[in-house]
Write a structure and sequence with these properties.
Elements (H helix, E strand, L loop, with lengths): L1 E8 L6 E8 L9 H17 L12
Antiparallel strand pairs: 1-2
Length: 61
């Protein structure tokens, strides 16, 4: 199992979130370096958008 530390920050002091995420070795089988990095990036984006970022907008005037 490959382990990665995924992080996100808004730039404010103390507004950082990080989590260790494991990706099964089988998902990397047969991938070249570019494909491997794409898989890790995709996993990070899934982590990011599935509950680690909350926000929105509203019209006030």
């Amino acid at each position: 199992m490959a382990k990665f530390k995924f992080t996100i920050s808004t730039g404010y002091v103390g507004s950082k979130r990080e989590e260790i995420v494991e990706i099964p070795d089988e998902e990397f089988e047969g991938l070249n370096e570019i494909e491997r990095e794409a898989l890790i990036q995709e996993s990070w984006e899934d982590w990011l958008w599935n509950g680690n970022v909350d926000g929105g907008w509203e019209e006030i005037e």
